[in-house]
Amino acid sequence: MKPDLATLKRLLKTDAGADRVVPPAGFTVRLTLFTAAAMAFLAVFALALSLAAGRLADSWGEALARSSTVRISAPAEQMAAQTAAALRVLQTTPGIADARALSDDEQQALLAPWFGPDLPVADLPVPQLIDVIETDAGYDAAGLRLRLSAEVPGAVLDDHTRWRRPLIAAADRLRFLGWVSITLIALATGAMVTLAANAALAANAQVIAVLRLVGATDAYIAGAFVRRFTLRAFGGAATGAALGLVAILLMPSGGETGGFLTGLRFEGWHWIIPLLVPPMAAGVAFLSTQMAARRVLEELA
């Protein structure tokens, strides 16, 4: 009773006699349908989590990898001169595409989340920030630090390495946890379907014995149970996946300024991936019921 092409053909072929072997109602039906629907619903969210974490890691990596900041701390009367000197150094550094000093309004907007929108930046000894955009080839950070220390004593280069690495690592871990969750969901689905199949086979021990007496083979009996439970799992998973997609669609979209949770959705061709959940659930049910039927039928022999 190993899964093969013939078994799959029997699974797809309608057999009214074989269908009557498995009870059409009972707690095993409800258990299989509910388990498949619930696990498919969770799988859709796990997929969305994993894919969103992947997009987040790529976005953070790309955005931070090509940007740097120069911070200038100097007395007020020297700030303009040191800023101009730093800009000259940056504009003549290979690998830097653009460099510009942030205005007071831009620096105030950066500090607003911590100090409020009314912070008087012009009246406070706030360092001058210069936004640096790299080319694809990048620049020599160590060499630039040496030039800045020699020509602009108050300038400090921050290439965002200490921010970029932890953020990307965290997003990668989230992506990994998403795939781990999907694996656990598949294993839990298989375990519950196996439990339901065992219960159905044990409850129909007398029916199985009569079928054997009239000449039914174990492959025929097992095929009936496999077909019924596989189709139940497919139907339940299709319902759960559809509900999961609706829930994902109803989540708010934060656009470019949205956070991670508002980005928990599918994009582009990724919308096709949740459609694979019901066939995968059916495949798990197929294998689980096959193993359960073989074991129980051997015990009843």
Automatic annotation (TrEMBL):
Keywords: Cell cycle, Cell division, Cell membrane, Membrane, Transmembrane, Transmembrane helix. Pfam families: FtsX (PF02687). Residues 180-296 form the ABC3 transporter permease C-terminal domain. The keyword Membrane applies. It is found in: Cell membrane. InterPro entries: ABC3_permease_C, FtsX. It is a multi-pass membrane protein. The chain crosses the membrane at residues 31-52, 176-201, 207-226, 233-251, 271-289. Its main location: membrane. It comes from the Bacteria. PANTHER family: CELL DIVISION PROTEIN FTSX. This is Cell division protein FtsX. It comes from Thalassococcus profundi.
